[in-house]
Amino acid sequence: MLAKRIIACLDVRHGCVVKGVRFEGLADAGRPAVLAARYNEEGIDELVILDVTATLEGRQALAATIREVASRLFIPLAVGGGIRSEADAAAALDAGADKVSLNSAALADPTLLTTLAARYGSQAVIVAIDAKRTDRRFAVFARSGTTPSGRDAVEWAREAADRGAGEILLTSIDRDGTRSGFDCELTAAVSSAVSIPVIASGGAGRFEHFLDVFTAGRADAALAASIFHFSEHAVADLKSYLHDRGVPMRVTC
């Protein structure tokens, strides 16, 4: 079994890290570079920066923030928000990102995934899927969870993988910021449908939630924000907890 990854997410708005509940009520949680440096020291496996208003504001992700964060890291960095074209992806990667994450742009033009995978390799291309339970299915939403796309999460995950995406960042809108646990049913449905890694996001609150999503949810990685930002849980303690329960981690605890 491949080792699992723990990923920290920095939701950034106007240069500050923010966190809300179900994509709403965003509150300030600190400076991106400061948090990034702390996570690098604490043993996080990867870091994701999501510029949460870039798409809504029709602009690129903030290159200055990416450069500042990348300068503090010795772990992989992914960037999402405002990646709408080859030029946007190139700007993020040139600023120091190792991967780019596409959501709304990929839904609007799925061929962009293939284009970027051909140029940079699939390992550099993540498709972000924001999903919500509606009418006994998992519906995909675009534009920071504000716009229904008309797509089913499992079907879209399959297509994105076929088009060249190397990973799926799967966020449950219903669970985001609630700390009530990952949506393991959603995660397992998508993980079972594709052969590429699935990163579970939305709902982390306790160590048990990570164990659940790695086992019942079949996730390859788990992403969290609030519980790490506010120093409620140490990364090393989480990895030790998972390791002791048979979950293979990237760093032996």
If you had to describe this structure to a student in words, what would you say it looks like?
- The chain has 253 residues and is an alpha/beta fold.
- The chain has a single domain (5-244), classed as TIM Barrel (Alpha-Beta Barrel), CATH 3.20.20.70.
- Helices cover 36% and strands 28% of the residues.
- It is built from 11 helices and 12 strands.
- The chain has helices at residues 32-42, 54-57, 63-70, 86-94, 104-108, 111-120, 153-162, 184-193, 207-215, 226-229, 235-244, and strands at residues 5-13, 16-21, 24-30, 46-51, 77-80, 99-102, 125-134, 137-142, 147-152, 167-172, 198-201, 221-224.
- It has an 8-stranded parallel barrel with strand order 1-4-5-6-7-10-11-12, surrounded by 6 helices.
- Strand 1 (5-13) and strand 2 (16-21) form a beta hairpin.
- Helix 1 (32-42) packs parallel to helix 3.
- The longest helix has 11 residues, at 32-42.
- The protein is globular, with a radius of gyration of 16 Å.
Work out the helix count.
11
CATH superfamily: Aldolase class I
What is the helix content?
25-40%
Look at the structure and give the mean pLDDT.
88
Globular, elongated, flat, extended or rod-shaped: what is the shape?
globular
Task: Describe the largest sheet.
Answer: 8 strands, parallel, barrel
Low-confidence stretches: 23-27
- Order of strands, widest sheet: 1-4-5-6-7-10-11-12
Helix and strand pattern: EEEHEHHEHEHHEEEHEHEHEHH
Binned strand content: 25-35%
Q: Any idea how many domains?
A: 1
CATH class: Alpha Beta
The number of E-state strands comes to: 12
Oligomer: single chain
> From the coordinates shown, what is the CATH architecture?
Alpha-Beta Barrel
By CATH, the topology is TIM Barrel
**N- to C-terminal distance:** 17 Å
Structural class: alpha/beta
